[in-house]
Design goal:
With 255 residues, this protein is an alpha/beta fold. 41% of the residues lie in helices and 15% in strands. The protein has helices at 21-32, 46-53, 71-85, 108-136, 158-178, 199-202, 205-212, 227-233; strands spanning 12-16, 36-41, 60-63, 90-93, 140-145, 183-190, 245-248. α1 (21-32) crosses α8, α3 packs across α4 and α4 runs parallel beside α5 (158-178). The longest helix has 29 residues, at 108-136. The N and C termini lie far apart (36 Å).
Length: 255
């Protein structure tokens, strides 16, 4: 039955940025589909773990700050996940940060911090996960969280735009190399979501009205809106989907 192809029973997913917001929603969606998630964040993970365990799934929290991620850090994170949960089948690179400033004033330390979390950490983690998949001989899924800024320039967020544009390109590049090994590398590009990252926009009446007026769906997105696309791309139902970026944006890009 086709619905069976969407099940993730017996699989282990490593989800970064899972303490809150979009990737908390993704982690919960994967758990509801049957996966046991390892959750990584620099923020407390108790709430997400509690909600995962309420679905009957196992949960393994990992505290790490990806602003300092290296290839060795990524290898250690994958090894910890496998050691705790027995295997690794899915990697979701969801952690992200942003800094706002006019480009002529943008601080070097902010630029470097944003680019370290995306796309550098997703590359190191993807590399470590792919090595594990190849050694295990069972293929795997890598899902990156891109953005509308993978397609557009935005205002006062040059580092975030560069990071998410780079992540979209990285998604395609890794898919080209790893598809023949049964490793699916894809991405979701969320639109304007009601999360902490968009609080500054939503708190500015003029900016919020401009954004809201351009969303055909007539509402801000919620973390749960990503769950369907995430489960699909992490499941056998997407076995022949490689290098794609699926916008989940309420129609923003169609405007």
């Amino acid at each position: 039955m086709i619905l069976d192809a969407f099940r993730l029973d017996g699989r282990v997913a490593l989800v970064t940025g899972a303490a809150r917001g979009l990737c908390q929603g993704v982690a919960l969606g994967l758990a509801e589909a049957g996966a046991d998630p390892a959750l990584l964040d620099r923020l407390p993970l108790e709430e997400t773990c509690e909600r995962v365990r309420a679905t009957g799934r196992r949960c393994y929290p990992l505290e790490a700050d990806l602003r300092g991620a290296t290839a060795a850090t990524a290898e250690a994170i994958v090894a910890q996940t496998v050691g705790a949960l027995g295997r690794l089948d899915i990697l979701v690179n969801g952690a992200g940060i942003t800094r706002r400033s006019p480009a002529v004033e943008f601080p070097q330390e902010d630029w470097e911090a944003v680019l370290a979390v995306n796309p550098s950490a997703p590359f190191y983690l993807g590399q470590a996960a792919a090595r594990h998949f190849l050694a295990a001989g069972h293929g795997g899924k890598i899902l990156n969280l891109a953005s509308m800024l993978s397609y557009q320039g935005g205002l006062f967020i040059p580092a975030y735009t560069a990071a998410k544009s780079g992540l979209a390109g990285l998604t395609r590049a890794l898919a080209n190399e790893w598809a023949r090994h049964g490793i699916n590398v894809n991405a979701i590009a969320p639109g304007y979501m009601a999360t902490d990252m968009t609080a500054a926009i939503r708190d500015d009446p003029a900016r919020a009205a401009a954004v809201f007026g351009r969303i055909p769906a007539g509402r801000w997105g919620e973390p749960a809106d990503l769950q369907g696309a995430a489960v699909f791309l992490c499941s056998d139902a997407a076995a022949y989907v490689h290098g794609t970026i699926i916008p989940v944006d309420g129609g923003w890009l169609a405007w």
